[in-house]
């Protein structure tokens, strides 16, 4: 589970549940979307908050790179998570 807090306005918090058997490892620093293998020409990334993080699936013995994009410019923010394959 990740807890995301909007530090603007009312400071609302949101909970992102990870997949079953998936554990958070760490956040990932990156220079560009291409440096983490994400083609940003197919998704409009302007004006969204985004961060990358690693997870570990104990059933599959698999480490996954996740990219979470959050559009905060709505009454209710929208979240989209992309996973490496």
What's the topology here?
Layout: E1 2-5, E2 13-16, E3 22-28, E4 49-57, E5 62-71, E6 78-83
Question: Would you give an account of this structure?
Answer:
By secondary structure, this protein is mostly beta strands. The chain has no helices and 6 strands. It has strands spanning 2-5, 13-16, 22-28, 49-57, 62-71, 78-83. It is globular, with a radius of gyration of 14 Å. The two termini are 21 Å apart.
Measured as a percent range, the helix fraction is under 10%
| SSE-based structural type | mainly beta
What is the count of helical runs?
Answer: 0
Order of helix and strand elements from N to C terminus: EEEEEE
Q: Largest sheet, order of strands side by side?
A: 3-4-5-6
Radius of gyration: 14 Å
Which geometry do the CA atoms define? globular
| N-end to C-end Cα span | 21 Å
Q: Which segments are poorly predicted (pLDDT under 50) over 5 or more consecutive residues?
A: none
* Rounded mean pLDDT score: 84
Give the beta-strand count: 6
Largest sheet: 4 strands, antiparallel
> How many discrete structural domains?
1
Strand content: over 45%
Can you give keywords for this protein?
single chain; two-stranded antiparallel sheet; 85 residues
Give a brief description.
The chain is an all-beta fold and 85 residues long.
């Amino acid at each position: 589970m990740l807890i995301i807090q909007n530090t603007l306005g009312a400071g609302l918090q949101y909970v992102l549940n990870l997949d079953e058997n998936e554990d958070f490892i760490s956040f990932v620093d990156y220079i560009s979307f291409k440096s983490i293998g994400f083609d940003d020409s197919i998704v409009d990334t302007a004006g969204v908050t985004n961060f990358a993080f690693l997870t570990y699936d104990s059933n599959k013995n698999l480490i996954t790179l996740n990219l979470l994009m959050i559009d905060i410019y709505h009454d209710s923010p929208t979240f989209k998570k992309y996973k490496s394959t």
